[in-house]
């Protein structure tokens, strides 16, 4: 338990140490300074796709694909915005921002997926994958040996979670790099 707590706290202190060493100035943003023109009930709109997935999974309502749910949520949001302001130009300006944001994320995801494919093809080309399979077959225990080789002394679930978060195609990396414009 203490080790788990330390693993969660260590990055906080390490980042603060690095910020002080590089003399990075941080600003505290006061939430009250943020001025928005949107009403408070707009805070539920980002959660409508999740709510849609829960509702339209086929138990209470017909089953819908995620793309259909997202398009429906965009249409719902546009209708709510139109009813609120009765200005078609405002609604379409908002949709333009939405579409541009989706396009930016799409471009970065496609580039990262191509990079991941090139990386895995490179591993296959140099023979890493076939060597790993041959090694596990040589020891005769197949899947068990593969887990030991890939997992080492860590549990397999922990190793796979660590690899997934460090992957250049993970959702967090895509979102954070998109926000940082890198």
Description:
This protein is mostly helical and 182 residues long. It folds into two domains: 37-86; 102-182, no CATH class. It is built from eight helices and no strands. The protein has helices at residues 2-21, 48-55, 66-85, 88-125, 128-139, 143-151, 156-166, 171-180. Helix 5 (128-139) crosses helix 6. The mean pLDDT is 81.
Low-confidence region ranges = none
Main β-sheet: number of strands, strand sense, barrel status? none
pLDDT averaged over residues: 81
Radius of gyration in whole Å, from Cα? Answer: 23 Å
Q: What is the H-and-E element order?
A: HHHHHHHH
How many runs of DSSP E, i.e. beta strands?
Answer: 0
Distance between the termini: 36 Å
Name the descriptors:
2 domains; about 180 residues; mainly alpha
Précis, in short:
With 182 residues, the protein is mostly helical. Helix content is 70%, strand content 0%.
